[in-house]
């Protein structure tokens, strides 16, 4: 009862400031209700050029049987994310900003809750944007943006604002976007990733307010191009990203110097049509095996691939069934770094819930599966998928567990996960529930560092309510 009372009180407080001036869409992907990068998440301007939107989400989650070393095997958490965004730009120049408050409660000393869930009272967006529509020809558009902002590119597997996660990936710097007609778009950027603070465990548990920082010791730059109808109905994307980081005062890093080359070809799901999504990336450069100052730099050679094919039926509840496969390389027994680094990618759409569960990451997996999703009406969405999980390398970590001898095998287990969404008030108030069951394989039951090895299933359940104005 105490927990339910706390949840009700927190939801009421979070919604109180935003009961006037309702808007129909969220102001940014940070408070989005769709997957990263989708056009329908963009806000609609009124005649004055002013956008004022807000969102608040309250989530309760519980997990049991977790094998990750150093953490409690069972945990409950209550997370609250509230954001308000403003943009004004009646002419070619716009100014905007977004304030997001991400907090967590009910956490203990061995919690998995960290800076991915807590970033109290932060300003990830504060920008100027210059739009030069028509400057490069009729029907074309060019924009330049500077300051603090969010980035969503392509599938969101490498750079995204993760809608499911409780905090966002913010960047400070410059970006330029070019659109040529309706088929081609390109983005160039040079940014400093914002380091979420505080990062000390006690301060995170206390939801302490510390302004995030960015330094030239952590730099990300690159380019992305997208072409619609490149091969018939197929869309093609290509990207190059360069991440260069160094240790800075109070922050130890793996000194990553990574080049990532990414390519993708895909088609949209439509009734009576086969859709597909093929993406692959190769990563090279240098990095240390850990953040310790004594760790030596090693050569990086890593990669990931995602392949999916599906069919949508022409039925009233819009069912779609699909097959998929996710691969991401892991470290072997040599001295090189072969574990793929997902950079600033989103996890939920492909791999399952993050938060206190966070079973699968885009590293050291070879995981085929089958997915079913449906939209029985405008208010309801359902998703269910099942996959088997093998380790790409039996010598590297999975779910935070490692057996350097390789004797625990390479079978991680089987994951069944799903999501249900229901719009209580269309476009304004949504209920959502996510669940995951991970049936442990030999690796998680036999690895010497694995916790809760006698519990054969990791169970995760989450409920959230989100209000958007």
Automatic annotation (TrEMBL):
Pfam families: Alginate_exp. The keyword Signal applies. Residues 1-22 form the signal peptide. The keyword Signal applies. Residues 25-34 have a biased composition (Polar residues). Residues 25-49 are annotated as: Disordered. Gene3D superfamilies: 2.40.160.100. Residues 35-48 have a biased composition (Basic and acidic residues). Residues 98-450 form the Alginate export domain. Keywords: Signal. This is Alginate export domain-containing protein. The lineage of its organism: Bacteria, Pseudomonadati, Pseudomonadota, Alphaproteobacteria, Sphingomonadales.
């Amino acid at each position: 009862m105490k927990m339910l009372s706390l949840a009700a009180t927190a939801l009421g407080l979070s919604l109180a400031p935003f009961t006037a001036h309702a808007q129909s869409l969220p102001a940014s992907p940070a408070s989005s209700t769709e997957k990263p990068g989708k056009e329908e998440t963009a806000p609609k301007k009124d005649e004055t050029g002013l956008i004022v939107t807000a969102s608040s989400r309250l989530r309760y989650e519980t997990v049991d049987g977790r094998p990750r070393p150093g953490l409690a095997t069972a945990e409950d958490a209550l997370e609250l994310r509230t954001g308000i965004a403003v943009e004004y730009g009646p002419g070619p120049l716009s100014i905007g900003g977004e304030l997001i408050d991400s907090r967590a409660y009910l956490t203990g000393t061995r919690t998995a809750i960290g800076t991915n869930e807590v970033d109290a009272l932060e300003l990830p967006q504060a920008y100027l944007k210059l739009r030069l529509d028509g400057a490069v020809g009729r029907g074309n558009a060019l924009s330049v943006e500077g300051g603090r902002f969010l980035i969503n590119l392509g599938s969101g597997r490498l750079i995204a604002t993760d809608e499911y996660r409780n905090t966002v990936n913010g960047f400070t710097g410059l970006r330029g976007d070019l659109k040529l007609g309706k088929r081609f778009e390109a983005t160039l950027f040079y940014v400093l990733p914002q380091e979420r603070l505080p990062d000390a465990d006690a301060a995170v548990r206390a939801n302490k307010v510390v302004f995030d920082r960015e330094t030239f010791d952590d730099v990300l730059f690159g380019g992305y191009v997208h072409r619609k109808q490149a091969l018939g109905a197929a869309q093609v994307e290509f990207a190059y990203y360069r991440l260069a980081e160094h240790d800075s005062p109070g922050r130890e890093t793996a000194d990553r110097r990574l080049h990532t080359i990414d390519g993708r070809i895909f088609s949209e799901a439509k009734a009576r049509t086969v859709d597909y999504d093929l993406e692959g990336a190769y990563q090279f450069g240098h990095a240390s095996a850990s953040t310790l100052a004594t760790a030596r730099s090693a050569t990086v050679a890593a990669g990931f691939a995602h392949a999916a094919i599906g069919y949508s039926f022409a039925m009233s509840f819009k069912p779609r069934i699909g097959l998929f496969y996710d691969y991401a390389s892991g470290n072997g027994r040599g001295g090189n770094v072969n574990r793929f680094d997902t950079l600033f990618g989103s996890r939920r759409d492909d791999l399952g819930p993050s938060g206190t569960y966070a079973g699968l990451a885009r590293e050291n997996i070879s995981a085929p599966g089958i997915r079913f999703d449906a939209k029985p009406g405008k208010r309801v969405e359902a998703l269910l998928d099942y996959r088997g999980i093998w380790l790409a390398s039996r010598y590297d970590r999975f779910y935070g567990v490692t057996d350097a001898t390789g004797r625990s095998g390479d079978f991680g287990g089987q994951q069944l996960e799903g999501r249900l969404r229901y719009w209580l008030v269309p476009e304004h108030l949504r209920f959502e529930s996510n669940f995951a069951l991970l049936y442990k394989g030999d690796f998680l039951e036999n690895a010497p560092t694995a916790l809760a090895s006698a519990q054969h299933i990791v169970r995760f359940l989450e409920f959230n309510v989100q209000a958007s104005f």
